[in-house]
Amino acid sequence: MTGTRGPAAALLATTAGCGQSYDDIVKECRKILVERPAGETGKPDACSDVKEDDYKLISVSAAMDKLKWTDENGRFSEEKMLEDLNRR
Known about the structure:
Elements: H1 22-35, H2 52-66, H3 78-87
Helix pairs in contact: 1-2
């Protein structure tokens, strides 16, 4: 999540006490969500320390990336979403 993307930006300010910053935990969680195979469900172990509201945002952000519904800045693009839906 280099350069912080969309709604996930607000998540990155706090830190966890286990030596790994909350920012790093969130980044690893998002990476796992983006890279996991289609159809795999459930909250990955890498996301267990992510707050529930933050996890929901990360999940949506990762899904939009996988669907290629984001622009070059990582922001949601309604245009790209509609193009994709019209191709289906």
